[in-house]
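Our consortium's second objective concerns turning raw sequence data into structural hypotheses that experimental partners can test. To show how far this objective has progressed, the report includes one record in full. It was chosen at random from the queue rather than selected for favorable results. The single chain below, 694 residues long, was entered without modification.
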Amino acid sequence: GNRVTCRDWFQLSLKEGLTVFRDQEFSADVSSRAVKRIADVRFLRDAQFAEDQSPMSHPIRPASYMKIDNFYTLTVYEKGAEVIRVYHTLLGETGFRKGMDLYFERHDGCAVTCDDFFASMRDANEDVDIEALHNWYHQAGTPSVRCERRFDAASKTFFLTLEQVLPKTPDEHGSDAKVAQLIPVTVGLLDAATGSDIDIRAPDRGGRVEIAVVDGSESGKVGRGSRVAFPASSNGSSSDDPSTSVVLVLSAMKATFAFKTVGAPDGASVEPFAAGEPLPSLLRNFSAPVAMTVVPPFDTKESVFFFAHDSDPFNRWEAAQTMARGIICRAYKTAAASISDTISDADYDGAQCDFASIIVSDEAWPAFAGACASIVDDAANDKVDRAWAEEALSFPGVAALLREVAPANPVLVHRTRSAFVKAFAKHCVVPLKRALLTCEKESHAAKDAGEAYDIDEKQTARRSLRAYCLAALASLDVESAKAVDFDAAHVLRDAYDGAQNMTETVSVLNALAKVDALNDDDANGVLRATFKRFLETWKDDANVSCTYLSSVAQLSAYVSDVVADDATQNESASANPALANVSAVCENSNDAFSNVYDAKVPNKFYALIGGFARGNVCGFHALDGRGYDFVVEKLLEMDKINAIAASRLAKPFTEWRLYDPRRALMMRLCLEKILAAKPSPNMFEICTKSLAAE
């Protein structure tokens, strides 16, 4: 940004997208590349994909804006980084570096545009056609790619037909006809019997598989631009091995790629498709920012097979996420179908639903739960990357699930997911306890040996697995915990006392947020005492106090005796402990919170009010509307102090179309209330676009 900068604000993604990509690559180099990629994609899907589907959808280079402050967005930063990664995937590491060198040679000391960056990459790699990549800069929305798989046993040929669908979006040119994006789909083929990668090299590369585009069309032009490419670099990922992965470059709206077995070269005897139809490992390492669907869909057996055998760690993670998402969404639909709009508010949000029975009766549950138990055991025995295991078993969140079943009741989705996590913990309780004990023994042994705290891959992975096991076991209901002799209150108190670093300390706070403290007096006492100790220790640290505020925002039980005592006198507070907590911290109730919250500090506002609106589903989406009213009040107060901060936290209301009719109406009225208060231009743009979008 100092040596080469943007000509104007429309080019913001030019430097920010590149900066995020460089940061991602640096972090991957010094840690687990697979885990870093998974974490980045999880965030992209949960947050940026949601933005793509919202009234604020825009391309990475917006065509217009009212306030540029509103375009420091996830699309400009995170999706911008993914577009840079598309360059890297298509050109390879060497070609990408050639493009960067030419870019600096041409533009050092200049203010430039996204077109200048594109031209440097293109001109430095004249042998690679990237012309259609330019479309990512001016077309908004997340492309959907439909992949149809078919095997012809007679000709020993496997076909993949890729078809992209580009959504209409509410941005300035979003309803115009869109042209095909350039989408690299990295693919590997798994042997259906062994799960090993099939060698898909062509005969001239020492293999027995010919890969070709056999059909493609765009505006009537067959095969326009779509092609086959082999990875040109290696960064330690299976998706970079040219013998087991190939990049199918889709630059038409639809194209079919054929993998055909050819005669064996001298000395070769292995038939690539000897086990019959292979299983395609698609979009390895998440090679493009798209939503992929497969036809026919992978069944439970196939998904478990990927989870166990795929050499690409991203797609192994994806298999676990897909199975979990399917079970939770089916359970939600079953629960929602049993609820009438005319019943009580409590029953409307599923108070009487037996979620656990619905979940464990799902046909995919036994295979899924068994596979997860094996992964926990493997992690305990250090047979798999422990940090990867933690990611694989961190199931889709409410925000991601809502988009799968929208319009939906968010509290019902939350309760379904919570029941799923409890069912998982109950099924895997033995390996979870074993893994927790193993991590604790290793930590104590390392401490006794004088091992210093470090952020190396081994220590980080051990801390990740330990924190995961604590939170999973803490989620058990009181009776289930007693049945397996897990005293959450005792374990978490000891864990807090024995914490050797901030990561371990905060992991206890996160686990306490999972405990059913409203129905367990011991856990309730530990929760309040632990949060009080944490606040007393860190209240004067501006950064760590934000951690306290965001942790409080997630709680569903009272954070202190002060709040609990007040709630007994206040019917509305007792009905919504989460809101009571956040309100008390805002008001510094009875000086119990050491004036830790200051609305004039944006990060504290984001941590407490943003944490509540984004992360506390039951508190924010309470059916009486008080959670919405509280956040609107705080937004309007902040709008007078810091319009940029306020407008960013208005975005939960812009998603009102995702919700059930009762909540959608209340949220729409909140937007109208904000507009009636004559807000800042920043807030005005967010609210008007949300109400105007179809």
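The partners drew two points from this record. Residues 74-107 form the longest helix (34 residues). Confidence is low (pLDDT under 50) at residues 217-223. Both points have been shared with the crystallography group to help prioritize constructs.
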